[in-house]
């Protein structure tokens, strides 16, 4: 028999319904689907950005350079020599950005505070103009019913801090800065993320050199940098709590998300083991207050030097854990002592515009589940999820980023699974509100749900913004 096309089938169905005197309820299929894909009441929908990626105005309001200003201005370090000098000019356009957020209907905005605006020299005398700027941003958000979530460190380390993260003093300077910001803002800002993605600002900055400050240190020194990164987080938690009794504190981290190749007991166990082992110097240390012995043994003489009290600070209890989730790693159980093997990725694996964003939406479910099964955090936020796409403005003046919609929809479907199974996921922040300065990739990779014309900083909602708005309005994956 000849196969019926969908269109023919639709016509036939409609015709037989009409014959039987029935009218098909509008959206009948859609509604049934949405009911099963609902998020809980009070779920926080949001967008995320980071200061250096959107603000521009690098010399205004008393700001001094961060390591990213210096790095981006060093020839050969970023795509086409792009810098964050202007970026999205959000320093001036924050009211417009707030309008975009309001149009989406989000409840939360995860933004980062530029350390060199608050302490231009990294420490010492705070800069009132920097504090005032963020007070105005918070005013605007609150006036529009949007809850600010502060990330206190999203990689823009003040250049003036000698030695950067190689110096233990930087962890103490960070804690002073974090405590100061908490003190200034905690009457109106309730949620603080200490740091964003340990591996990105330690390993990529100091081991592989792709990110600022672009160093390639040997393993022992690089491990010490990692230690200073998580120590900063721990001392920061203590400082925030000391300065703001009611503040909610957590970390925003991108642990490698391991997906079991087959969903059975052995492979699920392998994914859990891999999560703990492969994230040993970062999330595991933070949530256990201890480096796993296997990590210390593996690193041997290169293991970090730990001082008294470090691990207690690092393991400070958290109110929530933020997870940045983009891509999966597949893992299987094997007979090895560690009990798992990470699958190599085949060359044909599908990816988004950034080659590292491999598409495997189950990573969203498993990132949540592995972390919850291992460490039972009180709450989880998805602090970032999103993708780059080769967006173009059509002659009709639109950006039809259907592949970003596909990416978001499938990841949210998997997040909804986690929520439905009872994992304590409280919110989700799309990366990103706007196209922006994508670090070493400069302006060549677009992650926004709003398009930005970098010749004039004009914003344009993409199809994905419309889609996100609909999902938020229905509190469901649509
Ligand atoms: C995250 N990688 O960075 C950051 O938190 C954002 O600032 C960034 O814009 C976003 O993801 C998109 O890249 C990452 O190469 C950058 O594995 C690179 C990697 C991971 C995270």
Automatic annotation (TrEMBL):
Binding site for substrate: 53, 154, 196, 326, 431, 438-439
Record key words, sorted: Carbohydrate metabolism, Cellulose degradation, Glycosidase, Hydrolase, Polysaccharide degradation
Protein's GO biological process: cellulose catabolic process
EC number: 3.2.1.21
Active site: 197 (proton donor), 384 (nucleophile)
Catalytic activity: Hydrolysis of terminal, non-reducing beta-D-glucosyl residues with release of beta-D-glucose
GO cellular component term of the entry, any: cytosol
InterPro entries, A to Z: GH, GH_1_N_CS, Glyco_hydro_1, Glyco_hydro_1_beta-glucosidase, TAT_signal
GO molecular function per UniProt: beta-glucosidase activity
Protein family (similarity comment): Belongs to the glycosyl hydrolase 1 family.
Protein name: Beta-glucosidase
Organism of provenance: Candidatus Sulfuritelmatomonas gaucii
Gene that encodes the chain: bglA
């Amino acid at each position: 028999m000849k196969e019926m096309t969908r269109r023919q089938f639709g016509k036939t169905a409609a015709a037989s319904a009409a014959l039987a005197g029935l009218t098909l309820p509008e959206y009948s299929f859609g509604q049934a689907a949405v009911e099963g894909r609902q998020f809980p009441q009070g779920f926080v929908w949001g967008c995320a950005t980071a200061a250096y990626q959107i603000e521009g105005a690098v010399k205004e309001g008393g700001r001094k350079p961060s390591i990213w200003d210096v790095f981006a201005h060093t020839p050969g370090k970023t795509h086409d020599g792009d810098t964050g000098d202007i970026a999205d000019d959000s320093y001036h356009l924050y009211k417009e950005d707030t309008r975009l957020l309001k149009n989406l209907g989000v409840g939360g905005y995860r933004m980062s505070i530029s350390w060199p605006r608050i302490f231009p020299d990294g420490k010492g005398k705070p800069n009132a103009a920097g504090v005032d700027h963020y007070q105005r941003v918070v005013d605007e958000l609150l006036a529009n019913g949007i809850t600010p979530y502060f990330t206190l460190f999203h990689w823009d380390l003040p250049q003036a801090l000698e030695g950067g993260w190689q110096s233990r003093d930087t962890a103490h300077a960070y804690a002073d800065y974090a405590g100061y910001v908490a003190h200034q803002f905690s009457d109106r800002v309730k949620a603080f993320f200490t740091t964003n993605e340990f591996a990105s600002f330690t390993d990529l900055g100091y081991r592989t050199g792709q990110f600022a400050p672009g160093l390639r240190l040997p393993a022992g020194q690089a491990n010490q940098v990692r230690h200073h990164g998580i120590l900063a987080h721990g001392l920061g938690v203590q400082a925030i709590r000391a300065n703001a009794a009611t503040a909610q504190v957590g970390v925003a981290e991108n642990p490698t998300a391991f997906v079991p190749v087959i969903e059975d007991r052995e492979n699920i166990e392998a994914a859990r083991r891999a999560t703990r082992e492969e994230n040993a110097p970062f999330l595991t240390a933070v949530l256990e207050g201890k480096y796993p012995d296997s990590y210390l043994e593996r690193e041997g003489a290169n293991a970090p030097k730990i001082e008294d009290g470090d691990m207690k600070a690092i393991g400070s209890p958290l109110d929530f854990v933020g997870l940045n989730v983009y891509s999966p790693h597949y893992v299987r159980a094997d007979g090895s002592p560690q009990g798992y093997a990470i699958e190599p990725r085949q060359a044909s694996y599908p990816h988004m515009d950034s080659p590292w964003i491999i598409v495997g939406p189950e990573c969203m479910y498993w990132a949540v589940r592995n972390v919850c099964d291992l460490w039972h955090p009180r709450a989880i936020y998805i602090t970032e999820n999103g993708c780059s796409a080769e967006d173009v403005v059509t002659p009709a003046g639109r950006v039809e980023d259907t592949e970003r919609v596909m990416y978001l929809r499938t990841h949210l479907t998997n997040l909804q699974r986690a929520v439905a199974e009872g994992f304590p996921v409280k919110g989700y922040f799309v990366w990103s509100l706007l196209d922006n300065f994508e670090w070493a990739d400069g302006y060549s990779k677009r992650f926004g749900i709003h398009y930005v014309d970098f010749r004039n900083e004009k914003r344009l909602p993409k199809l994905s913004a419309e889609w996100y708005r609909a999902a938020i309005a229905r509190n469901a994956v649509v």
